[in-house]
Amino acid sequence: MPQPRLVISDAVPMDELETAARHEPEGRVRSRLLAIRHLRLGHNVLETAGLFGLEKSQLRAWIHRYNAEGLPGLRDRTRSGAPPKLNAEQEAGLRQCIKDGPPPSLGISCWTGNTLRAWLRETYGISYSSSGLYALLHRLGLTAQVQRPHLRERLDGKKSLRG
């Protein structure tokens, strides 16, 4: 037996829906906005779900959220997830430590993933996996880069690379 046709709220004007989709930086939210627009243009749920790569049940859930909350209902909600291991003060300390470079007492010239993980374990008593450390660096806006020696310094006075 076919399900009853869903009614989609027209509280948000169509041009406002289109403008919101055009200016939305998050792709998932933009896709939801465009799916709602597509439905409001008269297309059915099955066709729209196929076009946007969604299950019918997921599209129906977005319709219900849109009807209840309007445009804000199409945004991702916060997810619980695991709390961060480092607090804001510790993150600031890590950022400064990376910026300053490793202390001379470590006997290394630059941080590596393993030495940074060991430093975090010794300093804060917090363990990170390699992938967890790189995810943390990414979240803090830091990148894993190693300064490379300049070609001129490597030539050591030679006239050409061919020697």
Structure report:
There is one protein chain. This protein has eight helices and no strands. With 163 residues, the chain is an all-alpha fold. This is Helix-turn-helix domain-containing protein.
- Helical residue percent band: 40-55%
- Compressed to H and E, one letter per element, the order equals HHHHHHHH
Q: Which structural class matches the secondary elements?
A: mainly alpha
Report the average pLDDT across residues: 87
- Tell me the strand percentage band: under 5%
Low-confidence stretches: none
The first-to-last residue Cα distance is 82 Å
Rough outline:
elongated
Determine the number of helices (DSSP H or I, runs of at least 4 residues): 8
The number of strands is 0
* Largest sheet data: none
Please give the radius of gyration in angstroms.
Answer: 26 Å
Keyword list:
163 residues, mainly alpha
Topology:
Blueprint: H1 14-23, H2 27-40, H3 45-52, H4 56-69, H5 88-100, H6 113-124, H7 130-139, H8 151-155
Helix pairs in contact: 1-2, 2-3, 3-4
Brief write-up:
With 163 residues, the chain is mostly helical. Among the domains are: 61 residues, no CATH class; 52 residues. Helices cover 53% and strands 0% of the residues.
